Amino acid sequence: MYDMIIIGAGPAGLSAAIYGIRAGKSVLVLEGKTYGGQIINTPEVENYPGIKKMSGFEFAKGLYEQAKDLGAQIKMEKVVSVEKSGNREISDMEAAQSDGNEEGSGNDAPVFVVNTSKNSYECGALIFATGAKNRLLGLAGEQELTGAGISYCATCDGMFYRDKVVAVNGGGSTALEDALFLSNYCKEVYLIHRRDAFRGEQKLVDALEKRENVRFVLNSVVTGLMGEGKLESISIKNKDGEEKTLKVDGLFIAIGQEPETAVAKEMVAMDEKGYIQAGEDCRTTVPGVFVAGDCRTKTVRQLTTAAADGAVAALMAVEYLG
Ligand code: NAP
Predict the structure, then answer these.
(1) From CA 104, how far away is CA 99, in angstroms rounded?
(2) Structural domain boundaries of the chain?
(3) d(CA 303, CA 173)
(4) β-pairing verdict for 250-253 and 150-151
(5) What is residue 50's DSSP assignment?
(6) N or C: which end of the chain has fewer CB within 10 A?
């Protein structure tokens, strides 16, 4: 039995692991994909206090090694379900220290069981740090053409499009960074956004405006994906309803994220968009269960806020455990 199980090895989960371990707790981190979360796709992290510039991959690797070296167990196993079962024995002193929560008081603290595709693990406190996944356009052919002209990761796939014509869809920092990155290698980059103002950082917009091979296609949405076996062109529609076809070799979709919270939905309350409900103390609606990072209800989703959530969730879990 572990003191703490953290689901997700992104910046929030690994930060929670560091804080949990340093508080003297046994910590297991479970991750179904690869460590690092979404930050591994960011070419350069320039806004994390204390770090001037570093690749997202390098940042994630450092965080992973830090958590592991401190003593966190990190297993690459996909969590398929979680449940609350039975009680763990806590000492009278712990019981006396507990904060009076329904399940946190007396000698009846629950045990949480986390089932992966391979094993089952038990813990006294559970932290969801499951992050978010790429939002899809939802167009016909999107799935079939993914990997054959359609990509959600410019840093992973951009090199395949050297000297080719590509489009990026989205108006946040990810789309702006992707367009900037691709403009280093590609012949031409269309940046398609549904409004005329960008949500992402102005510094990135300024940099893009200086690139001769970047074309802004504003007030427009992608309406169709065409190609046999691989993407050959896309159709776009502007706010006046005019449609046109753009011949492109690649389309990079960067239209935001959706929370990855399916595994938590039977246990804790969510908002209408599927984010796990919790305030700045990262406590969910279930005592002993905490949430950190992009999957939590909040207004600012950044690397810094994910790391901050990790620290808060772990310390709240430590307090709960006594
Ligand atoms: P985001 O900020 O949520 O932006 C998503 C963009 O996609 C928005 O411009 C949105 O348009 C557009 N969009 C959403 N649904 C769409 C649809 N169905 N069709 C067409 N367009 C659609 O997502 P993100 O850029 O991935 O960034 C996520 C978070 O990570 C943000 O907090 C961001 O600041 C952060 N981030 C930070 C950095 C960095 O600091 N270096 C880098 C990347 C990301 P509207 O604007 O019209 O809503």
Answers:
(1) 7
(2) 2-132+257-321, 136-253
(3) 13
(4) parallel
(5) T
(6) N
Cα separations (Å) of 285 from 87, 122, 268, 288, 289?
Answer: 18, 20, 6, 9, 8
Residues 32-57: tens digit of each pLDDT = 999 999 898 787 888 899 999 999 99
Ligand 1 near 254 CB (within 6 A) = yes
pLDDT of 103 reads 45
136-253: CATH homologous superfamily?
FAD/NAD(P)-binding domain (3.50.50.60)
Selecting among 3, 108, 123, 157, the annotated active-site residue is 157
b/e 122-155 (16+ beta carbons within 10 angstroms → b): ebbbbbbbbbbebeebebebbeebeeebbbbbbb
Q: Which of 69, 99, 156, 271 is catalytic?
A: 156
**Does residue 98 have its Cβ closer than 6 Å to ligand 1?**
no
Catalytic: 153? yes
Letter for the amino acid at 292? A
User: Ligand 1: distance of its center to the CA of 175 in Å?
Assistant: 7
Instruction: Find the radius of gyration of the CA atoms of the chain.
Output: 22
**Per-residue pLDDT tens for 150-208?**
999 898 889 899 999 999 999 999 999 999 999 999 999 999 999 999 999 999 999 99
The model's pLDDT over 136-153, given as tens digits with 9 standing for 90+, comes to 999 999 999 998 999 998
* Superfamily, domain 2-132+257-321: FAD/NAD(P)-binding domain (3.50.50.60)
Residue 127 host element (H or E) = strand 120-128
Helix (H, G, I), strand (E, B) or coil at 251: strand
DSSP 8-state class, residue 199? S
How far apart are the CA of 300 and the centre of ligand 1, in A?
A: 12
Give the whole-number percent of the chain exceeding pLDDT 90.
85
